[in-house]
Amino acid sequence: MSMTRANHLLAIYIASVAGSAVLAAEPHRDAWAQWRGPGGSGIAAPADVPLEWDATTSRNIQWKTEIEGRGHSSPVVWGDRVFLTTAIEGEVIAGAKAPPHMMEGEEFKHPDALGADRRHTLKVIAIDRGTGAVAWSKVAYDGAMYDDRHKASSFASPTVATDGERVFAYFGSPGLYVYDLAGNQLWTRDVGDIKTIGMGVGTSPVLSAGRVFIQADEDEGKESFLVALDARDGKESWRVKRPIQASWTTPVVVADPAGVEQLITAGNEQIIAYDPASGRELWKVDGLASNAIHVPLHADGMVFVTAGYPDKVLKALELQPGGKPPRVAWTYNKGIAYVASNLLYEGRVYLTNDQGVLTCLDAKTGELIYEGGRAPAQGFYMASLVALGGKILMINRDGDGGWVKAGPVHEVLAQNTVDEPVYATPAIVGDRIYIRGERHLFAIAKTAG
Description:
By secondary structure, this protein is an all-beta fold.
């Protein structure tokens, strides 16, 4: 890791935008069980959602609920509940400080890193989906933090995951906290201390086949690991070391052409696939040579791994049966944002840059369909792309955005605003869109008037 790379970790403070919890599933009208919904895809089941809304006039704002503290985790929906996490900053703790960070053999402190000297209360919150009322709010952790975060970030960045029985909330070094849907704590597990150059943790838990997977890549990679826990009681199933420096991405569980599941992890040095049952390494190929933040995209035997800084990289990998290394089908090297994850939708890959300008590529061949597709609103984009019904939703850091037509011809369909900053990726369930702003959770649906 070079000093140049570290000095330009500009966008990692909103690692929550890259943080994701992934489950292999099809779009479902009544659930958005992890970051970006089914399979981490960002694709919702078709539904009659509004094209336009405006928080300044309350147009199509069904309800909005104030959320205490600060959190960049995205909303997760199951049944009649919406789940979030938040971090509330407290007083200075005498003597508390972040651990030293080493870079190229020298101690390094990022100029925007802070927070380890203060007490923080980390909460898991359930919101009533119909009314917006707080159904329950539980303190998961209260005390000093092991490491710093970026000054504009939060210690509640990873998005929770749910299997319909349990809610899994991960906060990095403070651990993993698991509740039933009524808010009763079932178990908690400290998986280990994780250094991320003082920028905070972005990866979220992954659920598959009764296990919880956590990718924990830290600093120079000397203590990085991947761990699997039993979802019922938190007992460790396996743990493997990884020679991968700090990342803010989340792995995905993908079936190869023979139907065998692989746990695929992005990284700076290597892209590695593991056997989810044992942790055995199945294959590895050259990594991104850039900050690993985006969640990999996958469909039809293909996996698309991307990064936006310092280099813009897209690797389209064609999976092979029997645990063999994938074939690099094609690559692309421009138009990719630092933080916002991209979209694989209806056979096309949609890339967004930091300003929300879209590029559309054929997923099988990499053929350029269009580039320079204008953003629905000017600004800096950190929330990841989501889609439904032939439309792509984009929201910038100011809370402005809109819908763009999916397909070979770019068209902005509508513009909208929630009138406050947005860092988290929206969730779409049934006929409602849930957007987490800096201060409120918004439920957006067609309303009278």
